[in-house]
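Table 4 source record.
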Amino acid sequence: MGNRRGLGLHLIFVCGFLFAGATYTCLGDGNTSLAVCSEEERLAVLNFKDSVEDRSGMLSSWIGNDCCLWEGIHCDTVTGDVESLHLMGNDEGYLVGYEVMSSLAELRHLKSLDLSGNDFQGSRIPKFIGSLKQLTHLNLSQAGFQGIIPHHIGNLSNLKVLDLSLSKRTWGLMVDDMAWTSGLSLLEHLDLSPVYLGEAQNSDVLFYMIPSLKVLNLWGCRLFEADLGPFLNLSRILPNIKHLDLGFNSFNGPLPGFLQNMSSTLTFLDLSNFNLSRSWNFANLLSKIPSLSELHLSSCGLDKTHLSSPRYNFSTLSNIRHLVLSQNSIEGPFPSVFTNMSSLRVLVLSGNMLNSSVPIIPNLIDLDLSFNQLTGPIPAYLGNLSKLDISFNQLNGSIPESIGNLATLTYLDLSSNWLTGPIPASLGRLISLQLVRASSNLLNGTIPVSIGQLAKLQYLDFSNNSLEGVVSEAHFANLSMLKYLDTSSNTKLRYNISRDWIPPFQLVSLLLRSCNIANRFPHWLRNQRNLYLLDLSNTTISGHLPTWLRKMPIIGYFDLSHNKLNGPLINLPNGETYGRNYSFPILFLENNFFNDSIPRSLCRRTDLEYLDLSRNRLTGQVPKCLENLQQLRTMIFSSNQLSGVIPSFMALNSLERLKLNDNKFIGELPRELGNLRVLSILDLGNNKLSGNIPEWFGATLSYMRVLRLHKNNFTGRIPQCLCKAYKLHVLDVAHNNLKGHIPRCLGELNAMVNDGGYRYSAPPSFDVDENVDQVIKGVDLEYTKTWDMVFNMDLSSNQLVGEIPVELTALSMLVGLNLSNNHLSGHIPDTIGNMTELNSLDLSGNELTGVIPPSMADLTFLSRLNLSHNNLSGRIPTGRQLQTLIDPSIYEGNKDLRGPPLPNNCSNPGEHPTTVTTSKKKRKAAEEQINVWLLYADIICGFATGFWGVIGVLLFKKQWTKKLFKLSEDMMENIYVAVMVRVATIKRGREAA
């Protein structure tokens, strides 16, 4: 009995222990289990960890012996088998790898795999995933995969969710045959947007071979009508579908008839970019889908007639709650049909041509009317909206104080209108507000301190207004969620924040361009660890870069230009990149007083794509480590004091813009520059470069649009190869020692010819302001946003000879032509009037002759002309634009020119210049004929005088005649004796020999 009692107590103790353990498992950590993961599976996930870069510490918890306790891993609580691996990347952190390690194939019990949002560098989706037969959920979306989706995924017969979608602005994945999807008989959710299906076979199986589908996303897959059918058995087509997205494909015919079979289940339908103007059955189909609650018809060719016609009456769709009709051709007043749709909660009409006032629809919670032509003030009453976007319209008046009554408002965008007055303090009552934008208006006054009470605010943009006053710590009192702050281009706005203030938020973007931040680098930035966009340009800050800046994470977009900063650049941020890599790593430091050499720390920024250090005081040579910047597309070092030869390692293959002008570079150009196949702007002007202009400029640099070599020591001829630079806008080789003739083939530069045909296409580029310095109208001009509209040729101040090629006058797009200070001769081409866009023409300081062509009066845009110091003659043409050029100095140094505006106007004022030229030619021809006859008369008279001057004397003086003949006889006798003596001498010499 005692033994039985002891055994009973023992069993009670064991059961109690197991119950306590199970209770702890249920109430404790979700990852906690009684069993631990196997050594095989632990090593499998560790191998995966070793194959990726974990910059943000996503896998930092992967230590110890039990992988079931690691973040992102979930195991079966009894067996310890790894059942799910969830490693989703996001803006705060993600993994980088070159492939998914096959070691994950060891996770044979895996049911859910999520690697979305990471970056696998264009690698293929691994085939081994098809061996994970237990998978029910597979998410590889936006993970950087490329290539053909492996058919092996069709082996996952238990799969319910498959997401292989990409970002809607990128492509990389494609399918060659959709037959593999027929094996996914349990699939409920399939997202392939925007995977390329344009050449896939068996695309129709998506619509009738997977009857379990409830969600099908095929946005932007480039499908055609043929991919939708024909179908033999319409009853099998997606019978359980609830969500169908076919937007932005290549459909161009009637709507597919199978939509009517979905009437009982379909709630979401996207047919954007489907040309509904050609779809006769559109209204009929919509009326047969009463279950529809969300409808997207963007870019469908709809206009106001579609909305007013009875057969397109949207009011019959009584269950529609979310309607998107953006980017159509709807114009005129706001359509009344929408006010009758009582169920409507979300309405998007952006990108149309509506021109009435902002409507009031009380039931709406989300209204988007951006990019229209709305006028008038913002209504005082706006219903119960939670989102309002009326940006990019023509609204005027002030922001009503009543806007603070929208208690549920989370999103407010008023940007790019004509709004005036102050920002109402009532905005501080919108406690749910997450985004407010009022940029690019005419707002004035101060930023209300009440903004600091918006605890949920993440995005604040008041840029490009006329705000003033002081921004202090009180404006940010409770903004713990703030990530984006932009008050740029408010020149009277001043930030007065104490040095010791610690902000309650972690910014991602801070844009304060053209504000005043108290003449010092903002010290409160030292605690911002998430900052990626920083623009402090033109903010009057001065002094050295603070040392704590060096320890900050690398800032992607960093703009300190147009300030008074000085000292070395060694304190630029050089920490690790935080979070996701953005697509525009840019560094603007131009127009400061930075000195010393280019710091080697810049070489660590291997992701840099845009680097501008121009207009500083940098010295020394370019560091060799810059060859590491293989992603660099723009390098601007102009207006410094850099020296030495241009090193060959600067020829980075990705360069589109290289500007080294206004430095002290010497020597010849490195041959490696000829390898820059995408180079479009090359500016090496105002250095001390020498040698010939290389032959490879036009031959290999096919994207070249701007070439500036002015103010150097280049010699030799202008190479013929430049004629092959068909995209050239600007050719500037002025102030060198070039010789020879101007190549006639320069008239074949197609980009400078407006023939209505050929037009160049530039390589992909940044959406950043570019500038090009040009000498036009006799002064240095800087072109920024309009630089690509400048067409200029400057060959001045060289030693060029010969005539001006008439072929140059075919360059009808030229705005400026400067051939001054050479040794050009001959006439100005009569066809100069064909250069109809000329704004500036300078031919001064040459040896040109002849008259000024009358066609020059046809240059209606000509505002600057200089023909001085040549040998031109005749009367100056009059008429049109030339009458406005009244400065006589533009013709000085041509002594034979006459007519206004010169003071030697002595000819008939009514005489046409063509008549003057013709009369002059006739007089010249007559004078030449008279000179010929006078020459003949001089010859005859000279002969007669000489002949009779001798013969006449001999006839009258016989004594002279006798002496003359006696002299002749003596001379002949002496000649005879000399000849005979010479002959005898020669004979004796031969006989002696």
